[in-house]
Amino acid sequence: MRKKLLPVCLLLLTAACQPSGFYDSHGNYHSSDTGFEGTSARRTNAGDDKNATDFTFTRPGFYDASGGYVGNNSAFGVSDDFLPPAGMCRVWKSKRALSLQDPAEACRARYNLPDGAYVIYGG
């Protein structure tokens, strides 16, 4: 019995010693000791980014980093399985493999897209 408990105790001890913190929308780690931009530590998303662009979705399709509509799926050829459902959005990174694309999510008013990325609005 003692041999079975030892790995569990080590796992719990290791987890307790890990520093607490979070990753921001750019994948940068921030410890909770230092906070984030002078405030208490919190998890952020691209909508909090000072350099994010405002988006207004007026019709289904692809929107570029400037927030402008650039076309429907006929120009991009994304598989229907990867288009977001109605009322949802998906950040589409053109240089990323299909299996590594971000999941569909509730649309945000602000996005900070990397080069070659689009927001697909499901309508």
The total beta strand count reads: 9
**Mean of residue pLDDT values:** 75
In quaternary terms, these chains amount to single chain
Question: Helix proportion of residues, in percent?
Answer: 10-25%
What is the count of structural domains?
2
CA radius of gyration is: 20 Å
Order of helices and strands: HEEEEEEEEE
Decide which structural class fits the backbone. Answer: alpha+beta
Span between N and C termini? 58 Å
Largest sheet: 5 strands, antiparallel
The coarse silhouette is: globular
> Please, how many helices?
1
In the predicted model, the low-confidence regions spanning at least 5 consecutive residues are 8-16, 24-28, 32-47
Order of strands in the sheet with the most strands? 5-4-9-6-7
Proportion of β residues? 15-25%
Describe this structure in words.
This protein folds into 2 domains: 35 residues, no CATH class; 71 residues, no CATH class. About 24% of the residues have low confidence. A 5-stranded antiparallel beta sheet has the order 5-4-9-6-7, with no helix packed on it. A two-stranded antiparallel ribbon has the order 1-2. Strands 3-8 form a two-stranded antiparallel sheet. The protein is an alpha+beta fold and 123 residues long. Helix content is 13%, strand content 24%. The protein has 1 helix and 9 strands, in the order αβββββββββ. A hairpin with a 5-residue loop joins strand 1 and strand 2.
Give a quick rundown of the structure.
This protein has one helix at 2-17, and strands at 21-23, 29-31, 53-54, 61-63, 69-71, 88-93, 105-106, 110-111, 117-121. It has 123 residues and is α+β, with helices and mostly antiparallel strands.
